[in-house]
Amino acid sequence: MPIIVNLDVMMAKRKIGLMELAEKMNITPANLSILKNNKAKAIRFSTLEEICKALSCQPADILEWREEEQ
């Protein structure tokens, strides 16, 4: 998948665990885990906004585009 979710990297930089972040965002840990493990097919802008608020970061800190390997 050419879009990579670097949520795990940003969580490590901010020293915040999955349960704490899920609580801050009012999202289930299971749904947050799907994002963290790069298994999500889509993300709502409202969810991305909540992540950025909770982690004090920019969307580009979370999402990365990589060219698909041939």
TrEMBL record:
The lineage's top-level taxon is Bacteria
A Gene Ontology MF term for this entry?
DNA binding
* InterPro entries assigned: Cro/C1-type_HTH, Lambda_DNA-bd_dom_sf
Q: Which residues form a coiled coil?
A: none
Q: Report the Pfam families cross-referenced here.
A: HTH_26
Domain HTH cro/C1-type spans what residues? 20-62
Q: Which PROSITE patterns match?
A: HTH_CROC1
Q: What is the name attached to this protein's record? A: Helix-turn-helix transcriptional regulator
**Origin organism lineage:** Bacteria, Bacillati, Bacillota, Clostridia, Eubacteriales
